[in-house]
Amino acid sequence: MNFFESQDTAKRNTGRLIFLFALAVLSLIVITNLLVMALFSFGGTAMTSMAFTSSFHFDPLQFLVIGAIVSSVVLFGSLYKISSLSGGGARIAEMMNGRLLVSGSQDPAQRRILNIVEEMAIASGTPIPPVYLMEESGINAFAAGYSPSDAIVAVTRGAIDTLSRDQLQGVIAHEFSHILHGDMRINIRLIGVLHGIMVLGIIGYHLLRSGRYSRRSKDSGGIVFLGLGLVIVGFVGTFFGNLIKAAVSRQREYLADASAVQFTRNPDGIGQALMQIARNQDRSYLQNPKSAEISHALFEEGQVTALSRLYATHPPLNDRILAILPRWRGDYDESEWDRSALAATEAEEQQKAPSGASQQEKAAAILTGATGVLLADAVINQVGNPDSKHLDYADALVKQIPQLFLDAAREPSGARAIVYFLVLSKDESVRVKQLQVLQGSADVGVFEELQRVYQSEQVVAAEQRLALITIALSSLRQLSQSQYQLFRSNFKTLVEIDKKVSLLEWSLQKIVMHSLDAVFKKGAAPYFGKKNLKSCVQSISVLLSILTHSTVQDGKTSKETFAAGADALKLPLQLLEVSKIDFDTLNNALDDLADLKPLQKPALLKACVCCITADGKIQPIEVELLRAVAATIDCPVPPLLAG
Fold this sequence. Notes:
Layout: H1 3-44, H2 49-55, H3 60-84, H4 89-95, E1 99-100, H5 108-124, E2 131-134, E3 141-144, E4 152-156, H6 157-162, H7 165-180, H8 183-212, H9 220-264, H10 267-279, H11 308-311, H12 317-324, H13 346-352, H14 356-370, H15 376-382, H16 388-400, H17 403-409, H18 412-422, H19 428-441, H20 446-455, H21 465-476, H22 481-496, H23 503-520, H24 537-550, H25 558-569, H26 583-593, H27 601-612, H28 620-632
Parallel strand pairs: 2-4
Antiparallel strand pairs: 1-2, 3-4
Helix pairs in contact: 1-3, 1-8, 1-9, 3-8, 5-7, 5-16, 7-9, 7-10, 8-9, 10-12, 14-16, 15-27, 17-18, 17-21, 18-20, 18-21, 19-22, 21-23, 22-23, 23-28, 24-25, 24-26, 24-27, 25-27, 27-28
């Protein structure tokens, strides 16, 4: 699946959702007007059919007034719900009574799911989403959030206790497809839309109750009638809303299944997970009453109702299995597919992992193979499209990182220390100033953790930086608002203390802040861009200029390197002197480019690749630089592999 096309499709689906929502609201306005006209006729005429019919007439002013009231109620109800979910995926996980899983758990099943999510995030080039556990016996999962930066993954107890590692990997790969391709944002908006429509029914319910408890009032009959009418309106609105939700969701599930197969190269994994649901006593059903609100975001149907076939947000289970495993014969207990529910044990984890030496050789071979053979189109094709080779590479890469650093990155204090450590200057005089700043301003325990890491004298290779940052980001999301603000200020100070622009250090800072601002800043939820490349000429010039000055291209002058990127865009770009590019200029340029339309971003990334491969080669440091820049414009680039 093409990442940029899927993002554009998600953008168009948002427009489609707005159109369908407008039609639903218009229908509610018409129905409410009919009910009000009937109420006035009932209250103001004798109860004869002739009198009732003659007094039942259309009033344009009344229609407009009622239309404005209904629209306002629905709109404010939707905005209220969406605002209540502004915290991103974590709000939805908490709504579903999910419990955050943290590293260090002694439960093998919990450790396994955390490892799977970590591997997949590193392989896909996205921040590691926090994992929430729902104490439900049904086998299910969901991803939620506005973007990869504030996404979460939630799984049920039934899923982690029943599914093998391969099956869990298939389920999580399915959820990562929703994260990568913009589905989550539509899911949250669907929740808000349906809530807005349901508000009319809620108002009607309260009017019914108030009318029932005020029977002595001469107006109680009218109140009851109006309340009953609004309940009917709310039911009709919810009915059509659920139809909209089902229509928007079904096809995306097939696409997410296909992406999961591409990611893992193991159709048996997700196929058998679906079979396990069919065999499971509780199937995929959830007991939480809020599960109906997020039914379209779940891995499989969360409830069964009388209208399940009509409201189904997922294709039939058998159809999904057949699409993944065309040779399947329809027997859920067939021995060739059946595996033990507890196959993924600690022993399996150990057996799966090669020795440290072979892992290092494996990762090194991948990077060496990539050098000098990457073409711009090959790089673009990997964006948002990780596969099993990326999973293997991520597994190998993590095993190369010193365990001291990994352990630190997986808890909040250590994660801050790791980020600070990665931007410590090689210049001793600058490094002393940086350490003095942290000693005086870092939170309790963070400076001590930094000293422990720094004094170990272990190093992090260039290709390991982004993986370590990715792991740390998940821990940093656990900070309080005040802790985050202090961390943000310290990080900015460390990077700018020598008043020199190091693009790699700046890119790391931009990745961290770009990801965490989406979580900690209100109103920071990203949206699909709307700009064209022609309107961003100055910002593109800044980006290509800093790439030109920050990389060394053998046998190429700065002008030739810049021209390699500029020629790919056919725009009037200008090479800027490095002295004219400061941090604010860089930040403004990347913020501007992040607002490009989805289908405009491939050309920009291609120009960046042309810059850093002007000499026909690419070094590991240049790969990570490219990935860092791409992440700041919401293009998750997986590790770049040969072939």
